[in-house]
């Protein structure tokens, strides 16, 4: 059975002898690979990224990824993989040879769909044009570029290593070499005006890429920006930016399908959509997290965050590179499902709830009734979807589903 048909198969839920429900089919599976190094740590970033001291130990790293993947295989035996996302950190710091070895490894071990989406994240200023063609030859068919802004002053304030000219050059070479390109932008930047924000967006749109991710810059705990906050646009200005961004992108043909994601028709990121549809994903590499379903339970996993410790432990092949693995408690499944699914503008088919949590929708009937009465949840009998109002006040909507 292929993963796509697995995902669509109507879920029959039955009670097991211990009185718990079981999943009759497993959802589509994606694979995430983490590359934890960056040239310089950005002051706003709380992802698992570490400034490089010297060269990347590529061969050791690839050996450790292979060991991590090999140990995870029994958990995904026989399943097809619909997408791979190589994220970071800065994966484009890896040489062409290392990416080629990584993709060969993934193909050798995994049952990859022939048209699997394979995304690689790249930072402008970390590679010359030639590398994109080589990544594409190795099998990468989508590039996600961390542009953030085209404005040199804003880029400096964000501590980025690239300037606007390098951002434009990177987009052009990525587009020449690889079919699908996403640009990551951020708004509500230090000192940014509404005009500056829209100028950035216009430049981003002018390349005609099929996907744009536009994130509201947030002050994350334990970052330099949290400790020394820069002067940021106030809430009213940020809200005006968000509204104008969505409006202008819609006019240009990029439909907003998730809080921060905009795509041309049919160009949604399959990998991220699978996360939001409560699909499964295996995460390998330091700090990578995963969600894996079995017929009688759903697990969350997290790998050790420190790259050296993760490498060392993965090579021991005794499971000690896994920092945490736990079953999602039955009473939290409803909230976890909604936390993901309601981010999607179109929501998800109501049948997914039973198929992917193993619980009848009746288990959250009370919360759904309250949310519908408040005008936050759409009463659509086919889709589970927030109303426009509920989408704007997503936290209020989700609060109804808290265990
Ligand atoms: C983890 S980064 C990896 C991509 C790549 N290293 C880069 O920075 O260009 C993925 C994206 O998350 C977004 N991001 C990171 N920190 C953020 C923050 N504090 N607020 C909003 N977006 C953030 C940025 O747009 C970034 O491109
Ligand atoms: C913020 S998103 C940006 C995606 C991009 N906008 C796109 O459409 O392709 C990607 C980042 O999320 C993080 N990430 C995604 N999946 C992950 C996982 N399973 N484990 C750990 N980090 C993950 C990584 O830091 C990665 O750089
Ligand atoms: S380059 Fe990307 S991953 Fe690295 S520190 Fe900056 S935002 Fe974080």
TrEMBL record:
GO terms for biological process, alphabetical: porphyrin-containing compound biosynthetic process
Location(s), subcellular: Cytoplasm
Residue ranges the record marks as coiled coil: none
Family matches, as PROSITE patterns: RADICAL_SAM (PS51918)
Pfam family, one: HemN_C
Keywords (A to Z) from UniProt: 4Fe-4S, Chaperone, Cytoplasm, Heme, Iron, Iron-sulfur, Metal-binding, S-adenosyl-L-methionine
Signal peptide residues on this chain, from the entry's feature table: none
Cofactor(s) demanded: [4Fe-4S] cluster
Any one of the GO CC terms: cytoplasm
Presence of the UniProt keyword Iron in the record: yes
Principal subcellular localisation of the protein: cytoplasm
GO MF term list: 4 iron, 4 sulfur cluster binding; coproporphyrinogen oxidase activity; metal ion binding
Radical SAM core domain mapped to chain residues: 23-256
NCBIfam families in UniProt: hemN_rel
PANTHER family (UniProt xref): COPROPORPHYRINIGEN III OXIDASE (PTHR13932), RADICAL S-ADENOSYL METHIONINE DOMAIN-CONTAINING PROTEIN 1, MITOCHONDRIAL (PTHR13932:SF5)
Biological role stated in the UniProt entry: Probably acts as a heme chaperone, transferring heme to an unknown acceptor. Binds one molecule of heme per monomer, possibly covalently. Binds 1 [4Fe-4S] cluster. The cluster is coordinated with 3 cysteines and an exchangeable S-adenosyl-L-methionine.
Family, similarity comment: Belongs to the anaerobic coproporphyrinogen-III oxidase family. HemW subfamily.
Protein name: Heme chaperone HemW
